Amino acid sequence: MKLMFASDIHGSLSATEKVLERFAASGAQWLILLGDLLNHGPRNALPEGYQPARVAERLNKAAERIIAVRGNCDSEVDQMLLNFPITAPWQQVLLPHGRLFLTHGHLYHPDKLPTLAAGDVLVSGHTHIPMAERRGEIFVFNPGSVSIPKGGFAASYGMLDDGLLSVYSLEDNALIAQQDITP
């Protein structure tokens, strides 16, 4: 199974366009959106190309291939613009040897884990900082932010391909982080 991950779009149409281009070229079956899709939030500056209604229109064109979770900046009003569900605080994707626990990162994160089994992966956004690593018997993965990167990192997205979690620069596809999750 090949999956693409994007987080923290924060209403940036230019970032959304790049994400959808990468998704179309990736061959991934699903685009997993890890929250904070339309609004920038009170602690963030407006991202480049801030057009939340247009972002919703563009994402709706891929709605049948999107799995999403709610971020701390997402609301019921945002859901009214989107044709795919975004109000779940978490989702799960089952893998042959474990599962992906998908969440934004404000409720569950590496320092406050949900109940996970050995080999499971906590997948979250929220911090805008990419990460792909093993922590004991589990893995933690954050694709970073596609619109408002932090920590000196480039805008980024993630991929799961044949048991390999990777974070890539949205601009030039340069590898930022990688972790093998195969048993």
Overview of this structure, please?
By secondary structure, the protein is of the alpha/beta class. Helix content is 16%, strand content 30%. The protein has 3 helices and 11 strands, in the order βαβαβαββββββββ. It has a 6-stranded mixed beta sheet, covered by helices on one side. The protein has a 5-stranded mixed beta sheet with strand order 4-5-6-8-7, with no helix packed on it. Helix 2 (52-60) links the parallel strand 2 (30-33) and strand 3. Helix 1 (13-26) runs parallel beside helix 2 (52-60). The longest helix has 14 residues, at 13-26. It is globular. It starts with a strand and ends with a strand.
Mean pLDDT across every amino acid position: 97
User: What amount of the residues lies in strands?
Assistant: 25-35%
What would you call the structural class?
A: alpha/beta
Q: What oligomeric assembly is this protein in?
A: single chain
Radius of gyration: 15 Å
* Helical proportion, percent range: 10-25%
Order of helices and strands: EHEHEHEEEEEEEE
Summarize the structure.
This protein is an alpha/beta fold and about 180 residues long.
Task: Describe the SSE topology.
Blueprint: E1 2-6, H1 13-26, E2 30-33, H2 52-60, E3 66-68, H3 76-81, E4 90-95, E5 98-103, E6 121-123, E7 131-135, E8 138-142, E9 156-161, E10 164-169, E11 175-180
Helix pairs in contact: 1-2
List its salient traits.
16% helix, single chain, 183 residues, alpha/beta
